[in-house]
Structures are given as C-alpha cells and as structure tokens.
C-alpha cells in the first residue's frame, strides 16, 4: 500500500474516532426509532403463537406446514440479515431502514389476504426479508449515530421493545377471543394490523439523516462534514477530513470476517455474540413461543385464561427487559449474560416440573423466571457483534450475527412441533436446558468485557485531541 493510501486510511480512522465521541441532542430519539422496529417484528412473530389454533381450525394443516408457516418469517430474516447487512454498507443506513419498513408494511397487509396456508407460508418467508435487514441496519445505525456508553444501553433495549410487541399481540388476540369473532377473521386481522405501526414508524424515521461515519467510509467527505455539522451542531470534522471526495476501495465479506478474527478481542467477542444469538433464539422459540400451545394442550384453563396468564408473565418479562440495560454500567455485558442464561436454565426446569404435575402455578412461575432470564441473556449478543466491528463492515458483521438468531429460530419453530409429538413436552424441554448452560459457559470463559468499547483513542492522540 502506498504512503498516500496509508495517509488517507489514517485520516479515516481519526475521523471515525472523532465521530465516535460526539453526541447529538436528538441521538436518543434516533436510537428509539431504530429499536422500535423490534416491537413490530415481535408483534408479527408472536401473533402466530396465539393464532395457530385458529389456523388449525380454518385450514387443517399438517404439523410440518404449520411449523413452516410459523418459521417462515425467520427463514426470510436469514436472507434479509445477510442481504441487508451488505446493502447497508454499500448504499447507506438511511436508504435501507426506509426501504425495509416499507416492504414490511406491504407484506403485513398481504398476510391478511392470504387465500390458503401455503400462500401464507410463502408471504411470511418474504416478510422476513425486511425484518432481518432492518435489524442488521438498525444496530449499525445506533453504533454510528450515538456516543459510546449510551449506544450499548440503547441497543440492549431491543428486547424491551420485543417484549412490548408480544404484549400488543396478546392484548389484540385476547380482545378478539372475548369478542367471539370467527377464527378466519381473527387471524387475518391480527396478522395485517402490524402494517399500521410500520407505516407510522416509517413516517417518524423520514427525517433521520445518513450517518457521517458511512460517508467517511465511502470517501464522501464533503457530505460527511455537512451532515455532521447539521446533526451534532458543530463542524467536528473541520480539519480532520479532506475538503474534497475520494474514491476508496470497498471491504469484501471475506476481508471483514478475516479482520474480525485477526484480533483476539474482536474474535472472542464475535464468537460469543454468535453463540449467544443462536442460543437465545433457540431457548425462546422452543419454549416460550410454544407455551400458549402447550397450555392449551394440557387443558388446564381456557384460551382466554391462558392468554391472561401469558400477559402477566410477559409484563414481568418487560420489566426485566427494561432493567437489563440499566445494569450494564455495573455488571457489563458479561455479567448480564451470565445471569440471563443461568436463570433461563433454572426457569425451564421449574416449568417442566409444573408440566409433569399439571400445575398451572408452577408452570407460570417457572416461565416467569425463564423469561426474566431470557430478556437479559438475549440483550447483549447482537449489541456486542455490532459494537466491536469496524464501521467499514459493521452492517455485514451485524447481519451475520443476526443470521444466527434467525437460523436458530427457523430450525426450532419448524422442528419442535414434531419433537413435541414424538418425545413429549417434558423430554423436549429438558433437551433445551443444555443450550443456555453452554451459553453461560461462553459468557464466563470466552466473552471479554466490551462495555464502553470505542475506536481506539490512538488515532485521537495522533490528531492531538487526547493528551497522555
């Protein structure tokens, strides 16, 4: 590499370090607009959990087709996470989060109009593409538009929004149950309604800017200075970047993965993030997602009573999801993950005892413990993966990490209905316990503490902005 190229890359690293330490007056608003997408995603995904009995009554699908329809969004999200991560690095963060939410709103309406179970399954696969793309893009946006320390807290709130989406699904389904509406009307309305908040979120995001960091990475220094000055209220890149644009080579996926694994810190952080994302999805979609169906199968209570019990459990889970990010400064991502995965294992075992004895109180109590732990265990994986990656390939790194969430979700949702039938609920859930134990060990022995991580201060020292 020529001395000229080395100089420009030093300049880019210095510019990113400067941007990493800026805070805009409306940065938190931008963060909330990113994580709110998870509310809409969970609303859509968990609506399936509560309307599967209606779909059975209307279409009489096989267990395999029902499981595939439930898992369809997850399959599409795998494609969306990979594709969206690449597209956001290539075309910009703003373009992708606007396009993804538009596509999701269209797919939500299409779901409600599906004429058959097979068509619904296909639509849900397509609907998953914008879901995966938006999450990969949203985490990337937060890492670049918010200052260190605050961005991790905001990013970890994604599970809080996820829990609120589940509560919205429960409230809506229960209202329809109490209204004694026909099952064929109920499932259609419930799957189509998330289009409304999707459109509202799209409108709210309209005025958000592209990140200055993305412009810097693409050599578009004139726009980077303009956007940074407007967003942060000061020309923080003045004298840091050239006053003209430059053509820069792009980082390939192979180079991104190689770079992630070349440094022990980013390698260990990334490996943990992948394990954490895979396990948190598996524990969730093998247990809590099917809990309404499990309770209905046991015949302990009516559908409405089951929904009310689940509402109470998820209210508790929402508190957990809200509290988790607030503990980061005290216990870090490492401690939060250890507590989370540990509680998940304990909670599932308690619930299995309740299922074996047909005791509703023990089942709900164990579910509460499991979900409290789940929302702590699932908060840090995606955040860590996005945090330690360099801006040049942050979208790709975030997309790859989220692929592990959706891969586990798809496989679990498709396989577990059959597993429940062949092994029984108790044995199937006991198998699940193995995975949070593995993730607990990964948090203990693989994950370095990454809270407050930022671009190395070395480049700022070179620029004279940090004194030794």
Topology:
Elements: H1 3-19, H2 27-59, H3 63-91, H4 93-112, H5 117-145, H6 150-155, H7 158-178, H8 183-192, H9 195-205, H10 212-217, H11 221-232, H12 253-260, H13 264-288, H14 291-298, H15 303-326, H16 328-356, H17 360-377, H18 380-388, H19 394-423, H20 425-445, H21 458-462
Helix pairs in contact: 2-5, 2-7, 2-8, 2-9, 3-4, 3-5, 3-19, 4-5, 4-8, 4-9, 5-19, 7-15, 13-16, 13-17, 13-18, 13-19, 13-20, 14-15, 15-17, 16-17, 16-20, 18-19, 19-20
β-strand amount = under 5%
Q: How many extended strands?
A: 0
Helix count from the secondary structure assignment? 21
Mean pLDDT: 86
Structural class: mainly alpha
Order of helices and strands: HHHHHHHHHHHHHHHHHHHHH
Low-confidence stretches: 455-468
Helical residue percent band: over 70%
CATH T-level topology: Growth Hormone, Chain: A
Output the CATH class name. Answer: Mainly Alpha
State the major sheet.
none
Tally of domains: 1
CATH architecture: Up-down Bundle
Give the CA-based shape.
globular
- What is the C-alpha radius of gyration, as a whole number of Å? 23 Å
Q: CATH homologous superfamily?
A: MFS general substrate transporter like domains
Cα(first) to Cα(last) distance is 30 Å
Transmembrane segments: 30-51, 63-84, 96-114, 120-139, 160-179, 185-204, 287-305, 311-328, 340-372, 392-416, 428-447
Protein name: MFS transporter
Subcellular location: Cell membrane
Keywords: Membrane, Transmembrane, Transmembrane helix
